[in-house]
Specification:
Blueprint: E1 10-17, E2 20-29, H1 34-46, E3 50-61, H2 63-75, E4 80-84, H3 86-94, E5 101-104, H4 107-112
Parallel strand pairs: 2-3, 3-4, 4-5
Antiparallel strand pairs: 1-2
Length: 120
């Protein structure tokens, strides 16, 4: 039986902040919701702007979500900037994706960061 929360599992919004596309994610990123996140990131990247993913309101990031971040990272000319909650930061660090992504504690810090930095 599908619960009432099924449609509220993930909310993704895209907005522009100057030359940056900001994708704000609320909810849980798992196998069921990862395609929704991937579609939003692909749409945001089509504009050719730098991408910041605000995941401060994400309570769970599963392996499917990590894969989406990896794919988005590979499509970015500059290092992908991710604003991470503890629930997001932990799996990123455990899988060493923090070697490919720039992880920030706040949206302001991510927006202020030098986007030209690239992974070593």
């Amino acid at each position: 039986m599908s619960g009432e929360g099924a449609s509220k599992v993930l909310d993704v919004r895209v907005r522009e902040d100057g030359d940056v596309a900001v994708v704000t994610v609320h909810g849980e990123v798992d196998m069921a919701s990862a395609p929704q996140l991937q579609a939003a990131l692909e749409d945001a990247q089509r504009g050719g702007k730098s991408l910041v993913i605000d995941m401060l309101e994400v309570g769970f990031l599963g392996s499917a979500g990590l894969s989406v971040l990896l794919v988005a990272s590979e499509a970015q000319p500059a290092r992908l900037r991710v604003v991470a909650s503890d629930a997001v930061r932990r799996p990123i660090e455990l899988t060493a994706l923090d070697e490919l992504l720039s992880v920030f504690p706040s949206l302001d810090a991510a927006l202020a960061a030098d986007e030209s930095s690239t992974p070593s």
